[in-house]
Amino acid sequence: QVQVDESGGGSAQAGGSLRLSCAASGRTVSRYAVGWFRQAPGKEREFVAGTNWSGGGKTYADSVKGRFTISRDNTKNTVYLQMNSLKPEDTAVYYCAAKISDALNKAVNWYDYWGQGTQVTVSV
User: Fold this and answer.
1) Could you tell me the pLDDT band of residue 29, with boundaries at 50, 70 and 90?
2) What distance in Å separates the CA atoms of residue 52 and residue 59, rounded to the nearest whole number?
3) In this structure, which of 10, 38, 53, 62 has its CB flanked by the most CB atoms within 10 Å?
4) 86 touches 77 (CB < 8 A)
5) Is 88 helix (H, G, I), strand (E, B) or coil?
6) CB-side exposure of 42: number of CA atoms within 13 Å?
7) CA-to-CA distance for 46 and 54, rounded, in angstroms?
8) CA 53 to CA 38: how far, in whole Å?
9) Contact status, residue 32 vs residue 101, Cβ threshold 8 Å
10) What pLDDT digit, counting tens, does each position of 36-50 carry?
11) pLDDT tens-digit profile of 72-87?
12) Of 124, 115, 112, 116, nearest to 32 (Cα)?
């Protein structure tokens, strides 16, 4: 089992930046993929970005390509989401999710372990 905890959320103005962190613990000796998701009020949870174990495989939602960057430091069991050029429509609760796998997937139901979420609010 892997536990994940998000941090780094908060408020920013449009055009600003925030960096989210996802710290993993537990069975981190296993190879695990990590995905970032978000959920705005009244909307379904959606995929934002994901990385495989090595960090060599990454994928992004079209809505964040060129603005968000996912990276990981396996020596620290931490995955980061650097969010630049933020827009009001990026406002949501952001979740980190993990699955013990060498693969990478965008589907919400593929991931087994979820954090509690961190709020990101972007104002005009």
Assistant:
1) low
2) 9
3) 38
4) no
5) helix
6) 0
7) 23
8) 21
9) yes
10) 999 999 999 999 999
11) 999 999 999 999 999 9
12) 112
